[in-house]
Amino acid sequence: MSDIWQRPRNKTATTTRRGQSDNRSYGGPLITQPDNSKIGMQTGLLPGADGVSEAVSKNCSTSALNDIEALPSGTFSGPPAKRRRMEAQPGYSVKGCLELLSYPTPLKYLRHTEVRVPTLQDCVTEIVVEYDHSERAQPPDIALHRLSSIDHEGIIRPRLYRLAQEVHTELGLYGSSYFWKLTLEDMIQKLGRTSTPIDQARTMVEQKAMDRLWTDFSRRKPCIPCLDVASDDFNVSPKFLKLVELIETNTSPTNSFRVLVLVKRKIVASMIVELLRELAAFNRVRNVRPEAMTQAQYMDQELTFDKFVRGDTNILLITKSSEHMTFPKCDIVIRFDLFESQLSYAASVAHCSNSDGYLVHMVERGNAGHRRVLADITALSDDFQRWLPRLKPGSTGAIPPRSLHETLDPYWSDSDDDEPSPLIRDPTTGGIVKCSDAITVIHRLAASLQDDHNGFTIEPFFQCAETREGMRTFTISLPQPSSIRPITGPPRKFPPDSLQAACYLACSKLLDEGMLDYRMFPQRLLSTGSQSTWGDRPSTSFSADEAIEVVNTRNAAVASAGTHRYTRKRPDFWVNSSSLPRTRLYPTFVAPDDLKDEPYAPVLILTRGPLPPFSNFPLYSSGFMTNTRFWTGAPFDVTEEQYTLLHSYTSRVCRAITNKPFACPADGFPYLLAPVDDFWEDDFPDSIGYGNRRSVDTHIPWDLVKLAAEKCFIHLLPDEYADVERFVADAVIQDRRVEFTNRFYVVRVRRDMTPLSKAIDSPREAEYPSLLEYCKTRIKDFQGLKNEKQPLLEVAVAPPAINYLNPVLRPLLQSSKAPPKYLIPELCAKFTIPASTFRTMLLVPSILHRIDHQLLVKELNAHFFQHTILEEHLIAALTPPSASVAFDYERLELFGDAFLKYVASIYCFVTTPHVREGALHMARQKIISNKALLTGANRIGLPPYIQSKPFVAKTWTPITSPHSSRDPINDQKAVHYNDAVAGDTSAIQTTSKRSKKQKQQDEQNIQWLGDKTVADVVEAIIGAAYLSGGQRIALQTMKVLSVNIPGVEQWSDFSRLFTSQTSPSTVPLPTATVRAVETIVGNVFARPQLLAQALTHTSIGAHDDRTYDRLEFVGDAVLDFLVVQFIYDRNPGLSPNGLTLLKSAMVSNHALAAFCVHSGLHIHLRHAAPEVGTAVQVYVRKLGEVREKEYRLAQSERRLPGQYWLALDPPKTLSDVVESVIGALYISDDFQETSVRAFFDGTIKPFYEYHIRLQSLCPHPTTTLFELLQSFGCCQHGIAKEREDYRTRCEVVVHDVVLASALEATSAAATRTVATLALDALDGDPHFMIRTCDCRVSQQSKKARKTQKAQLGYEEDGDISASASSGKHHPRD
Questions:
Q1: Distances (CA, A) of 497 to 296, 367, 418, 689, 1240
Q2: What 8-state DSSP symbol labels residue 965?
Q3: Global pTM value
Q4: What is the predicted pLDDT for the residue at 1248?
Q5: Within its chain, how far is the Cα of 1129 from the centroid?
Q6: Burial group, residue 262, by CB count within 10 angstroms (0-12, 13-18, 19+)
Q7: In this predicted structure, what is the pLDDT of residue 221?
């Protein structure tokens, strides 16, 4: 088929085909068959790669964009079968054109498509060239395998083998053979240039080895270029062949004709130049003078640049690092490789000649990933089109709009991988900025700083100045208002070098100030070898060689058939920041709100690298909640003395938190802790981020830091007559003068009591006549008191550090020994850390644990999803219920499961035409099964990021070494997640006996995950992606998670893949029927034949194309997703099982059948079975009767009607018709949700809202209440009943908390009322069960649940007997 798509600018085109000419005037593009004849270059023509050329009028503007269906193979161009016309409006984007081409015309049938850029002063023609997949013509690289087998001395470096493989993949066997020829010749020349005797002695051995390699290579048959695809000797890649054909048919002998080729890898660019020169020597191409700008030195680049300017070189190959240079205008710019970068795209447009330039995109035929990237980079917003002309050569540029689309893949070339170069590393994600990345990073950062509220304004970005020495400097100005001042780079002779150096300096300074957003850093994404999603899809967090090692290791521990042990990943931030200098610290301000009316002072977490911004999160204690706020301050430098004090202070805090000995060297802490004065409490910023940052170093009370660093405690009172109130204010006191002991908070000073008083209300001293007597008896060598009339201190025990992330009410266990209530000031010591600060420090372990989770989420989001998922959703998606925090993945899992089923159903429908519904179900199950999701998750390395373990404060220890972030590859004791796929159940052998503490620490580094848990996390991540960015982000997330939907990279691919057609024998619907159904759904069917199919019962014909079976399969999935989305948004705090109850009620056959009758769709059902018609008629009559009865009852009880249809058994045909009509409407709308969502919102949702609610799920509300509480896993709930006079009082009690209460005349009425009130209470307070219940029961049998239901008092009928009316019945625990 055709290889080039281009849209002609005029309506008249001349096409030459096999020596014939045909002149016709059509409004749309011509569709032709490829031809192998070669046509010479003509003025104003851009011939196709197969020799077909089209005349293009340069002065005629495009008046319309047409989309036509492809003619069958073998036909010549003629009037289009169908034509959709869209007027080209000013600002019409390239993406719109590409989307028009995607349906209904398959991409491979298109001939030429010209795309204009309306905002440029002169138009540039864009052409997309397709090449075949390279596997068809890729014989193995024999030279590579032969050389590697005989190179025993290792003369050839491994890097050369890798480069040869890249050349072989991109250019073919001829390219790799020529690469080895040049490489070996170069190595021989270098060996001959030895000078010293030592070098000569070493070289003799290498020379012999080199001679052996060259002799063996020379014996091989010379590789001659063969560009004939039909020949068995074809030895170039189809991609290179297409490039040669483009160059061969479009070059000109004039010096003013220039071609610019953009290539990803430098080695590929260099070899293309060598191969073109060889082909010119064989007279295969003419008028080519190629060069490649791949030199490492800018002086050499300038020489190559000058040759291109003079015309000595007419074809210049560059990599992405050189595209920002100011080249002379080029006649053709060829993007040999695709880059998901609008900056790169804009640079290519700027390099094209204004009036008659061509921009050529080379894409692989049938590659959906290439189609998606091309659509993304050519989706030009209005702001982007305004900004694009500012990239003209010689301009100072402009700050890009916020809509700038850039992938995080840096597209490093081969020299960037191996040659040492300065770099900047982000401690959060490990991303690296090299000099070649700096310009892109600064553009991305500037775009992110644009203010959406004020609209996009063109602001200058770069200012170039020339020094007296002839050097150039660039000054970068970021968007205003911003606290980032303009940054001027170092002087350089070459302008591109100067701009790059300025951008790199800006990145370095911004990171040093903690103001370079971690989301700006490039991420090198590893490929899994399949279709890419965002650039190259990440396979794991380690290299391919290491992945092979992991796969070959089979030491996974298996607890059961569905449970495996995985390594828990630790954040890389602490490892990355530990290597940074400790003289500069980055403060993160932590300020909890007061909890239980106790003051909590703010503290600082000081790190060597900038912590990213964190969202605020709550902490819980004994039923109370406090919000913890974060803010990042400006970095500051510390002296060695100050750092030593902070280290000692942090050690003191850690020993106090654990109440155990602890020591750590000065370099061992990746973070430090510090107090801060009260200045911030009234001046805390409302927003978090990389904005204005205030200094905090002047607000650190260094005197308190020094005191705590040097001493653990001091005397509470300087003398026995001191002012007690003043010295105990905000103090933590100890009853013993040792470091590791109990500590107490002062409640108040009791001046009404002295040591001679009897402590009646203190159990510890109650049996003694006075507190002084207790001291004499219990304190060894007690010397007495200096002042026996001093007041006493009433105290409360300072609790130990606990898990403050668990919201469940859980009181602390009381010690068997009674704690003191009163203390004598003279005998006490004062802890050197104030009470308000110490309270906050006790929260630090829980806070750091949560920070670790957020850091992991940021890593995962960067490495896998390019920050496209909102972190608040992603952290929930990675958290199973077993983590015992205030959130988990269960709601997101329900949402993601519905979307996964939705996408998989559409995919099976469009890729397997004419397949029956049962086969579609089986095909879908292979995609969405837990096994398939588990396999994909293990393939990309997801399980280590899952945080399933609850935080255990008792085992908490500060991070003291970078090795605490365990590497799942290098750690020999770690269990690799790839092993879980193997299912090896061999036991893990231990080499030595480990202590209890060591075992506890080991357990913190591993986790046992069920296969279903991993699959649930995958579904939850998909749900989080949809909530973050809709269909597009969710679909791309599915690709990253290895969901098996090949050929789909963007939503429009479903339309492109759709090949199923309605059977011609289907009887069309009468016009009146079509109009009636369209009135019901509120939309017009673009394809009425699909509506006819949707209303046709299987009794009419066995052929599925004439019945609704396949459409019902699609409609069922679409309706499921719309229902889940509806109830998810309407019930933000309802448990997943509660949502499932609602969903099951809404999509049940009973509800859909009732809606079918309610809407009138049943009238239009077409069938040929009398029993179907009879069943429908009977059901409609009975449904009307129960409906009237329920409506009258609801009116009398002043409530909304419930599910009146539950007692009837509906014909399945009615529910199938509803789903099939939804499927037909969805497909008729080109697989877009617009029409079907309007039908759902306007007709289906009001029906649901009126009849299906939490209170009406079951005929009796007590059943619904029981099922709902069971869905939370709660086992401590029930209905308590008691008699009051002649009425019955019922209370719903959950964990000893009364949820609702009702008083009615009868027990049945009271039970119904209290159950309804409890459901209302749960609906109004969605976090009640999260705060109250922490018990999760296993699934019970129906009989066991029925028994438990009766025991807990959920009777639906009857009354309380008189004999039992005297007491109150409490629910069982």
A1: 12, 36, 20, 32, 58
A2: S
A3: 0.82
A4: 94
A5: 21
A6: buried
A7: 64
**Strand 822-823, strand 432-434: pairing:** unpaired
Q: Which residues contact 1124 (CB under 8 A, 6 or more apart)?
A: 894, 895, 898, 1139, 1143
Residue type, 721: Y
Residue 629 token pair:
């706020």
Bridge partners of 1168, per DSSP, are none
Which residues pair with residue 589 across a beta bridge?
604, 631
3-state secondary structure 1341-1371: CHHHHHHHHHHCCCCCCCCCCHHHCCCCCCC
Contact 102, 74 (CB under 8 A): no
Q: How far, CA to CA in Å, does 940 sit from each of 372, 381, 1043? A: 22, 34, 11
> For residue 159, which of 240, 267, 296 has the smallest C-alpha distance?
267
User: Which residues touch 144 (CB under 8 Å, ≥6 apart)?
Assistant: 161, 164, 165, 168, 176, 180
Question: Cα(26)–Cα(75) distance, rounded to whole angstroms?
Answer: 16
Instruction: Name beta bridge partners: 565.
Output: 1008
Nearest Cα to Cα of residue 1186 among 1209, 1164, 1165: 1209
d(CA 480, CA 186) in angstroms, rounded, equals 53
Lookup: tokens for 548: 């092979």
DSSP letters for 143-185: HHHHHHHH-TT--S-HHHHHHHHHHHHHH-HHHHHHHHHHHHH
How far is residue 936 from each of residues 20, 530, 860, 900, 1243, measured CA to CA in Å? Answer: 54, 12, 15, 14, 39
What DSSP assignment string belongs to 460-490? B-EEEEE-TTS-EEEEE---SS-SPPPEEPP
pLDDT at 700: 93
Rg (C-alpha) for the chain, rounded Å, is 37
The single residue listed with the structure tokens 């109150």 is 1368
Residue holding tokens 């300065």? 422
- Helix axes of 1261-1271 and 1307-1324: crossing angle, nearest 10 degrees: 40
Best CA proximity match to 1213, nearest among 1221, 1225, 1204, 1201: 1221
Of 872, 875, 774, nearest to 821 by C-alpha is 774
Which segments of 229-367 does DSSP mark as H helices, in order?
238-250, 266-281, 298-310, 342-351
What the block records as the tokens of 494 is 């070459």
Structure tokens given for 48: 């196709």
Closest by CA to 264, choosing from 413, 64, 150, is 413
How far apart (Å, rounded) are the C-alpha atoms in residues 729 and 901? Answer: 62
- The first and second tokens of residue 565, run together, are 């042990």
Cα separation values, 714 from 213, 417, 656, 735, 748, Å: 79, 58, 15, 12, 20
Pairing of strands 603-607, 743-750: unpaired
Taking the alpha carbons of 391, 397, 403, 409 in that order, is the dihedral positive or negative? positive
Q: Report whether the peptide linkage leading into residue 460 is cis, meaning its omega lies within 30 degrees of zero.
A: no
User: In sequence order, what are the beta bridge partners of 1166?
Assistant: 1096
Q: What is the mean pLDDT of each run of 10 residues along the chain (1373 residues)?
A: 38 32 30 30 34 30 29 29 30 33 30 37 78 66 67 76 88 88 80 52 64 70 80 88 89 83 93 92 86 78 87 91 86 93 90 82 90 89 85 72 87 59 88 89 89 73 85 86 80 85 92 90 62 37 33 45 87 90 92 85 94 90 84 92 94 92 85 83 52 80 94 82 82 91 92 90 88 89 86 91 81 70 90 94 94 95 93 95 90 95 95 88 95 94 93 82 41 37 38 62 82 96 96 94 92 83 64 93 91 88 72 96 94 82 92 95 90 93 93 87 91 94 94 94 94 77 77 80 85 86 84 83 72 58 52 49 37 37
pLDDT (0 to 100) of residue 1236 = 95
pLDDT of residue 559: 54
Are the CB atoms for 1024 and 873 separated by under 8 Å? yes
Return the structure tokens found at 1046: 């090949």
pLDDT of residue 938: 94
User: 1082: buried, middle or exposed (CB in 10 Å: 19+, 13-18, 0-12)?
Assistant: middle
